[in-house]
Amino acid sequence: MKVFSIALTLSSVVFAGSFYSSNETDTSTYEANRPHLHYTAPSGWINDPNGLWYDAKDQIWHLYFQYYPYSEYWGEPLYWGHSVSEDLTHWNYSGIAFSPPKNNTGAFSGSIVVDHNNTSGFFNDSIDPRQRAVAFWTYNTPEDQTQFVSYSLDGGYNFTPYSGNPILNISSTQHRDPKVVWHEESQKWILTLAHSQKYEVLIYSSKNLTSWQLESSFSHHGIMGYQYECPGLARVPIVKTFHSDELPSNLTDSDEVWSNSFFDNGTNSSLPDTAWVLFLSVNPGAPLGGSVNQYFIGDFNGTHFVPYTSQTRFLDVGKDFYAFQAFFNSAGGTDVLGIAWASNWEYGQYVPTTPWKSSMSLVRNFTIRQYAPNPESVELNLNSEPILNLDGQLKNETSFKIYNQTLLPSKPLSYNVSKPTGVFEFDLTFTVDDSYYNNTIFADFSILFRGSRDREEYLKIGYEANAASFYIDRGHSKVSFVKENPYFTDRLSVLNEPYEMISSNLSSYKVYGVFDKNILELYFNDGSEVSTNLFFFSDRNFVGEIDISTKHDKIFIIRNFEFRQLR
Amino acid sequence: MKVFSIALTLSSVVFAGSFYSSNETDTSTYEANRPHLHYTAPSGWINDPNGLWYDAKDQIWHLYFQYYPYSEYWGEPLYWGHSVSEDLTHWNYSGIAFSPPKNNTGAFSGSIVVDHNNTSGFFNDSIDPRQRAVAFWTYNTPEDQTQFVSYSLDGGYNFTPYSGNPILNISSTQHRDPKVVWHEESQKWILTLAHSQKYEVLIYSSKNLTSWQLESSFSHHGIMGYQYECPGLARVPIVKTFHSDELPSNLTDSDEVWSNSFFDNGTNSSLPDTAWVLFLSVNPGAPLGGSVNQYFIGDFNGTHFVPYTSQTRFLDVGKDFYAFQAFFNSAGGTDVLGIAWASNWEYGQYVPTTPWKSSMSLVRNFTIRQYAPNPESVELNLNSEPILNLDGQLKNETSFKIYNQTLLPSKPLSYNVSKPTGVFEFDLTFTVDDSYYNNTIFADFSILFRGSRDREEYLKIGYEANAASFYIDRGHSKVSFVKENPYFTDRLSVLNEPYEMISSNLSSYKVYGVFDKNILELYFNDGSEVSTNLFFFSDRNFVGEIDISTKHDKIFIIRNFEFRQLR
To answer: Which family is it part of (chains A, B) (predicted)?
Structure first.
């Protein structure tokens, strides 16, 4: 009730569109524990990314988000907050894009398209075709969830509701998250919507963005949990090259390597240039608890999405990556870029950050690539590459490098970071002696990222040869949230294939990591798996020491370790 | 190498069939930390349960298992160990059932059928039809994995290899775990086999148990991880009753409530009496890390298994339940009973038990039931019920009961266990005020099971109203394995629907738990979800105190808590 009374007091201000100054990147308002590379709102609660689109005229990226600015907890009225960026790394808060009509309601998640050809009739010639932004969102009331359209005549900063709203109403309280894409072959707009508690992704088509026809339902796939949320289709480029080093020995080095399982006819077809990916979020009910984002690779013919296989895959195997959405448009035209909410509904409201609560993931660029999950298979896999522009105000300082160092118990490697900022990236390539796989010895090496003010706090990443898996341990903290929240899973593991088979018993692995105050994104083997997880040290106890060690002789060789601190 | 030299020394003894005395239940050899209700071998390493069958003549249950008796680590020669039981709770070790032909090979996992009608020709009239045991197993050598048959002329204690072995050989090193069932309609034997790294379950049929024809392949379903293992088909009874209390408000109380999603025609068909379930293990690559057992509900027509849906589901959502196998036959005829290995390949070899390593799960009885995972759906679900016979040497002592107690921060409930044994069960029913769901307050209650010798060690189980999920925390231990093994996930969560909707904002949940020295099995809402997890306290620090508490007024009412210590 307290939260709600504040909302009423401030609501008149909200409609002005900007009540926080957009100077969060100004060093004078520097807040020590706030992520620098991951988007956070000035203050208050955020969750799902919404309405992602690229303005090709002004060359600006738009990010909207579920926003309750009055509190560090979710609440209503729930707005679409708005932020813009020229490089996908530095974002400027641009105020509230739009508000729900009533205080005890919400402008729930949705998407934006550029209606270049004015199929909707919302625009006249004065609006540049590249800026004809049309937003689709769910109007959440205590009675139902219906789908609304709003359009912008100023390039995405202010929006006008369509007079014919709602455009879709099935008298359901669980019908939400419209994501619209363009389907070139059928020359139609396609809208996907979660019929959440029926475990359905409803697929609609339209010629004009306001009149929609139900074409099909994709239901009961993957992990179902309590409900489906935030479905979305994207046509993703397929990268056809496949290094011979990565190939299983019984397969040939060719662009046409292709698992029989993807098509019914079982032939080694040439790979197409693209495949469709259906993104689908589930919450609660993830295997790790709470929220998870899965994806399916398949075909979409304008009416039906058919996955190539019935397998279940996760977009990110960490605990903090949810409600992913892809951008409409990209600077490159065919690139599929997207952002997720970097938290988990199990504990997102209780994490120890203030005055902001929750951040977005880094922007990722997605491609489909072939990879070998074991010695006998080649499968398609969605590959993630982080987009980071570090040329601007963030200075890239290479601080620490190691090459070709065999790890020995007697010689642990240690590095002290000068003037720790809590923001850095690292590259790691190592080799492991494969004869320790399925052995009886627990043979691991680990990297401890220790706090500068209190080294008893650390984040641990390692690899163990017998289980052939990476592990992440985020439990070594004095922060009460970390110690006490029973859903804040301490230990996670990540299975990934070797990046390269150097010889019959020597495999190499690659890891790229970004630490950003309290967010860690780990990209394994150039992004064939990603694990995104929050972690929390005591106030301003940034990573100040890096310790690499093993208890086992000569199993691991660090081929390359490079640590780059960012300010 | 040390392990192997011991193997060579003892191998001549092995073939005698029994080199450990079978007195592990004798109190004179009582080992304080050994589970009493979960099967463990006298000493050494065990993994997958094998060859489960019921001898209807002598009314004896047979459990075989992957066994390396010379070490607490997996090794070769790998045997089929053997144990028998009259009540599925008390087991007697019966020696080595059979051995692989060579020392550096293994008699890998497989199954047993009763060849009542002597379709194989292995038996003559002197062998009772109910005891005509035929075993199928994978012969693992460094060169390949091929499928072998052995038969027993003495009711399952000793086995003779079939002269025509192998019965299946596809020149693969990854082709294993034959499980055979009888398909009544086609009057054929059906064998399922994992083509592990191709992500295929191969389905074969036979009239005579030795000549097999490939009928189909079930591939690329569910979580795939690194490889598939231990597939198995079973025809599971469907329980048609559905309590009106459990029904979503928009559905009627009827035996025919049935989700549209299960059949293409979308009608509310009557439920059949049974459905086929395909069990499938994956390791490594489980979402929680390492090993996991999934299942699919569908139809099997004698050649093809077709799941009703493409969803992914887990047989047990804990970390320690793998390589499940169902018994061939049951005392009741149609019951589907089964056992899993209660460990995880990520850390199973390193858990702090000695001289035995690993145990089996309790025997579970499976049915398919309808349940409502959210207010809008009714789905089929595999339900698990533990089989426990506590009438024999284990005495059932009701020690502690609570009825209708509203939890208050000022009045935590505490109970001290007299003469703790480390073996007990409990029943819990509680109600939760649903208005705290999706609220901003982290509102939980928890039960701490504390050690009797050191109460700083405890296992914690709780439920939080905002996330509407159970949690399990097994990390509060002084045991170095628990503190240091990075794969021993501390915190796990379990989502389960309410057992009963008492009113519009009052839900009730049920939990049944069995603690057995270092194994905890938790059955939520009469077994609609189960979570099985190992935990470790210091030596003989058995649970001696139970603390139930909350920090929040009047959200939770303990309707019933009953603790029963077992000796």
So the answer is: Belongs to the glycosyl hydrolase 32 family.
